[in-house]
Design brief:
Blueprint: E1 5-6, H1 18-24, H2 36-39, H3 44-53, E2 62-67, E3 72-76, H4 77-93, E4 101-105, H5 110-121, E5 125-128, H6 135-144, E6 149-152, H7 154-157, E7 170-173, E8 184-186, H8 187-193, E9 208-213, E10 223-227, H9 231-240, E11 249-252, H10 259-271, E12 275-279, H11 285-294, E13 299-302, H12 304-312, H13 315-318, E14 328-331, H14 338-348, E15 352-356, E16 366-367, E17 374-375, E18 381-382, E19 388-391, E20 404-409, E21 418-419, H15 423-428, E22 435-444, E23 450-455, E24 460-462, E25 465-467, H16 469-478, E26 482-492, E27 496-505, H17 513-526, E28 535-538, H18 552-560
Parallel strand pairs: 2-12, 4-5, 4-6, 6-7, 7-8, 11-12, 11-13, 13-14, 14-15, 27-28
Antiparallel strand pairs: 1-17, 2-3, 9-10, 10-21, 15-16, 16-18, 19-20, 20-22, 22-23, 24-25, 26-27
Helix pairs in contact: 3-4, 3-10, 4-5, 4-8, 9-10
The structure holds adenosine-5'-triphosphate and magnesium ion.
């Protein structure tokens, strides 16, 4: 395979020498960065907000730029402290205490962030829910976690089956003139009236912080519990990988309903005292470029699906905007196709840094760094302090270039502490000889770069060859007519499986036999004969999660006429 290598960037980075740091790194060193190292008093909200609000030189710095179609606001660290204190008092007055699960179910708004920090300040466990969830999805998660409280809006309240959830005795409604009776509280007016001072509830580093349900790409979402100790890794990866520095303006495009939107939309940036941009509303290329320009964003964290959509909007659009402040771009959530990396080079004159991690890992694990060469299509190398390996099904480490289970030596700071209500599932991640087994398939090259191949269950066995769907999808994307591709294995009596590709075409492209043949030949020549899809099917859209991941299990179910399973996280 032809690997395109992009040389290291020039500049003053937080992580200057990867190899050296990776050899000697000790996580306990990071503890010194937090005020609890001296005081012994732990709470992530204090470290992310109050600590800076109490520093004369930081308190007036903008912590949050919030904008959507109707609102355009900014809040300093000092204001964030007061407002989250008001949220904490509001919740405390309603009887919420340490360890209670408090769900946040509302569209992005400043209040969403105050509510999250308010809940953390009283020691509650936050359960973020994506605003597009329908009743079934909301019910499943509240039931599974025995939620005690929820913060929501009048519109979304219609999807919260309050009467069927006996544990859910506190419902904060964020609207106008909310009638207070039974479990219902008027969140906004209580917030406005509440005291803006609050004595933070100090917790143990191992106390619950956040309960995140996974994206549901491969099956029913799992409730992943993270603890305050995770801040160590949020902070350090925000330094090394996001490369956040004094004066940066940072924008993470992920919704807080997903782990990227909390670990790196909230915790990472604020633990490092960075100005954070939040843009509400739906995606449009113009809107996104405008956001980058208007806030003079310097560091931008997004996802392959978004980059692909920007790419298909055409290179002319981006030329209308002044993006000269941008210096660092990152991606997560799905494999980052080499095609997209090369497009980033072209239009932004910057490298897009792929990062690999999962809800379960809580923070970044395998990444590309400014100071390191990028091999387009590789997710990079493990962060210092983390050991990753490719292991076989018995847990033996495999040599370079052998495809196998992507596994991590357990015990990194932000590792999940359990799967809520499902200890058995939790234990199943650690069955191979103490390794944490990710469920992803990958290989490592001679230089220690990791290459994602697909979900273990998605790897295709065709005529005795193992083919990772990602490689085929990436090759398909290089074809000028193709904008998106999802590849599955389809059972075949002769070959075991054959490769079937679902493809969406650029606007204006017509499906013809020639085009089909051309696409097949393109993959055959660019990759290999056995990797070329025997079957091609064209679709206007591919099934995706709301966080933008292609749902191959749904493609497979459609193809084989099987039940599609839990679709709560599927985009409409
Ligand atoms: P579920 O576990 O519910 O099926 P999910 O695995 O998509 O959903 P997440 O925790 O949001 O839920 O996503 C983690 C997965 O996303 C990883 O296991 C991996 O398959 C994929 N992923 C994340 N980042 C990358 C990346 N940089 N390259 C390739 N794949 C990635
Ligand atoms: Mg997963």
């Amino acid at each position: 395979m032809n690997v395109q290598t992009l040389p290291p960037e020039k500049g003053n980075f937080n992580l200057k020498d990867y190899e050296k740091t990776a050899q000697n790194f000790d996580w306990t060193e990071v503890e010194k960065e937090f005020s609890w190292f001296e005081t012994g008093k732990v709470n992530l909200a204090h470290e992310a907000i109050d600590r800076f609000a109490d520093q004369p030189e930081k308190k007036n710095q903008v912590a949050l730029y919030y904008s959507d179609a109707n609102r355009d606001e900014q809040y300093t660290f000092e204001e964030m402290k007061k407002l989250s204190n008001q949220a904490a008092n509001t919740m405390k007055d309603a009887g919420i205490t340490k360890g209670d699960r408090v769900f946040i179910f509302m569209p992005r708004s400043p209040e969403l962030y105050f509510a999250i920090f308010g809940a953390i300040k009283i020691g509650a466990i936050v359960g973020p829910l994506f605003e597009a969830f329908m009743e079934g999805a909301v019910r499943d998660r509240l039931e599974d976690s025995d939620a005690k409280a929820i913060v929501t809006t009048p519109t979304l309240l219609e999807r919260v089956p309050v009467d069927d959830l006996p544990q859910l005795d506190t419902v904060f409604v964020m609207g106008e003139d909310v009638k207070e009776e039974g479990p219902y509280y008027d969140f906004k007016s209580r917030l406005d009236k509440a005291s803006d001072t609050f004595e933070v509830e100090w917790v143990d580093r191992e106390d619950g912080l956040i309960l995140h349900y996974t994206s549901g790409s491969t099956g029913k979402p799992k409730g992943v519990l993270h603890v305050h100790n995770a801040m160590i890794q949020h902070y350090q990866t925000a330094k090394w990988v996001l490369d956040l520095q004094e004066g940066d303006v940072y924008w993470c495009t992920a919704d807080p309903g997903w782990v990227t939107g909390t670990s790196y939309g909230i915790f990472g940036p604020w633990l490092t005292g960075t100005t954070n941009v939040v843009r509400g509303g739906r995606f449009s290329p113009q809107d996104w470029y405008e956001t980058l320009e208007r806030f003079k964003v310097t560091v931008w964290y997004s996802a392959p699906t978004a980059f692909r959509m920007l790419m298909s909007a055409g290179d002319e659009v981006v030329k209308n905007y002044d993006l000269s402040n941008l210096r660092h771009i990152l991606s997560v959530g799905e494999p980052l196709n080499p095609e997209v990396v090369m497009w980033g080079e072209k239009v932004f004159n910057l490298r897009i840094h792929d990062t690999w991690w999962m809800t379960e890992t809580g923070a970044m694990m395998i990444c590309n760094y400014p100071s390191m060469a990028i091999k387009a299509g590789s997710m990079g190398k493990p962060i210092p302090g983390v050991k990753a390996a490719i292991v076989d099904d018995q847990g033996n480490e495999l040599p370079p270039h052998r495809m196998g289970n992507l596994a991590i030596d357990k015990g990194w700071p932000s590792m999940m502490r359990t799967i809520w209500n499902n200890e058995e599932k939790f234990n199943s991640y650690f069955e191979l000889d103490g390794w944490y087994v990710s469920g992803d398939s990958a290989y490592m090259d001679d230089e220690g770069y990791f290459w994602f191949q697909g979900r273990i269950d998605d790897v295709i066995m065709t005529a005795g060859e193992r083919v990772g769907p990602f490689e085929v999808e990436s090759k398909l994307l290089e074809h000028p007519a193709v904008t998106e591709a999802g590849v599955i294995g389809k059972p075949d009596p002769v070959r075991g499986e054959i490769i079937k590709a679902f493809v969406s075409l650029r606007d204006g492209e017509e499906v013809t036999e020639e085009l089909k043949e051309d696409i097949r030949t393109f993959v055959k020549k660019g990759l290999s004969a056995h990797a070329a899809p025997r079957e091609l099917e064209f679709r206007d859209k591919l099934p995706k999660t709301r966080s933008g991941k292609i749902m191959r299990r749904v493609l497979k179910a459609w193809e084989l006429d099987l039940p599609t399973g839990d679709l709560s996280t599927m985009d409409d």
